[in-house]
Give the backbone structure.
Amino acid sequence: MRALLTNRDIFQHVKGNVARMLEIKLRHAKEIMDLLPEAIIEIFDIPGQQAIHWMNRRAQLLFGKALLNQHPDRLMGASAWGRLYRELGEREVIQNNLVTIRGKSFEFSGTLSHNINSRYIKLIAKDVTEHEEAKKILREEISEEIRLRRENEYLMMQQARMASMGETVGYIAHQWRQPLAQMGGILMNLESSYLFGELDKSYLTEKIEQGNALIKYMSRTIDDFRLFFQPNRESETFDVADSIQRAVQIVSASLNYYHIEVKRAFTRERFFAAGYPNEFSQAILNLINNARDALSQKPTYPKTISITVKELGSDTEILVCDDGGGIDPQLLSTLFEPYVTGRRESGGTGVGLYITRLIIEQKMKGKIEASNRADGACFRIFLPSVG
């Protein structure tokens, strides 16, 4: 009996020591947590009831000591607490959940532990109000920058359209010069025939038919230009070679005026890509115009623009090159940026190549680059092939 009492005494002594050690460690842990800059909150979760039973000094300073023994929804509201509580129940861990408390932003992280008849929740709250404000300001600045960039791009597109309108008038003038001269010749022939008494019904009918044919040609020219410069509203699969031919045709009279020859080398008849055919033709036209302006200043012959199209892996490669002397090496790295031009003396605005890059890289999902070769400039375009 005495031995049994002695064993019980030893057991009670050990049990008491363990309890005191645990109490000391718990108190020491809480003292450490009181020194932390984050708010720490401990919550007992008994079936059907939760209550805040401990808060470190930072938590008491931020949220108030009066929350002790209160339901957690008194801290952050029923909606926010319900969201955190559900996530803890599903995953037992939460990280960086953003909660707004009295106008300030806090990130809550925490864990859920299980006891025999209850659960134990520990939350750590970090005040991120300044960080969230900085993020908000940054988002606003980015939105403003995007708005300004889009506005600037819109203005440049408008400027490019105005420049295209001016060039279009020039193209039409070149296309109409010969038929207008022919129409003038027809009128002079009619006048001469009348003066010399040679004007009869047959001759009059012949000249009227010739005049009508010229008028139809000039009208068709207007339609061709109108359709060429009309933007496509939706992406479609189109023939790259056909779009290039249309661009060359539009500017052919102007090229003939400057005695510029266009050499085309297509490794096959058709190359298909996805995008906007009229805009792509406009991009090619911009490159041809650049080459034409350089070649118009060239005092010697030949004056040549070469256009090569070939398949390169999964891409279609288009080369537009000239023998007009090349691009100033100092401009090559910035050539496609807004308002950069090497032809100020011939009226260059620096918008055409920028718009060309927008069309190729943004609308067509391709790539464009520029380089110099021995006798001139070369533009290389890569478009993803279709089919």
